[in-house]
Design a protein that fits this description.
This protein is mostly helical. The chain is built from three helices and two strands; from the N terminus they run αββαα. 30% of the residues lie in helices and 4% in strands. Strands 1-2 form a two-stranded antiparallel sheet. Strand 1 (33-34) and strand 2 form a beta hairpin. Helix 1 (9-24) packs across helix 3 (97-107). The chain is globular, with a radius of gyration of 14 Å.
């Protein structure tokens, strides 16, 4: 599938977040709302809970291998298996504040006063 174009990051982030909410937070697809293109428009949980889940960052980590410490944190040892380090799709490490700002930017869910500046994660 490497001949196919990469999934746009905004779409990728919404799918990651939806999968995490379904798998680990008991949210059902029926609670979510989708736009006319079939993209998740509402995750079906209160804003405060959604914000907390995004800020925790676990939803955006590499998944697929049961964790050693927590079930929802992958134990995979294939960093950057789905993207180059310069444009991370699934984080093989715990996202830090700058990563969360980038994720929120990609989700179009930036917090007031916490705007992501393109490339700032490379300066860390």
């Amino acid at each position: 599938m490497d001949h196919l174009p990469a999934t746009p990051r905004d779409q990728w982030r919404r799918v990651q977040l939806a999968r995490y909410l379904i798998d680990y937070r008991g949210v059902r697809v029926e609670h979510m709302r989708f736009d006319e293109q079939g993209r998740v428009a509402d995750f079906g949980i209160p804003k405060a809970e959604l914000d907390s889940t995004i800020d925790e960052g676990v939803a955006f980590r590499t998944s697929g291998c049961p964790g050693k410490v927590r079930e929802d944190i992958s134990a995979c040892d294939r960093p950057y298996g789905d993207s180059p380090p310069s444009n991370i799709a699934s984080y093989p490490f715990q996202p830090v504040a700058v990563d969360i700002r980038k994720i929120r930017h990609q989700l179009d869910m930036e917090k007031p006063g916490e705007a992501y500046v393109e490339g700032e994660e490379l300066e860390v």
